[in-house]
Amino acid sequence: MIVYGASGHGKVIIEILESIDTPRIEVWDDAPKPPMWEYAVLPPFSTGNNDDVVISIGVNATRKRVAERLAPQVQFGTAIHNTALLSKRATIGAGTVIMAGVTINADTKVGQHCIINTSASIDHDCVIGDYAHVSPNATLSGDVHIGEGTHFGAGASAIQGVRIGKWCTIGAGAVVIRDIPDYCTAVGVPAKIIKTREP
Question: At the topology level of CATH, where does 2-70 sit?
Answer without folding.
Answer: Rossmann fold (3.40.50)
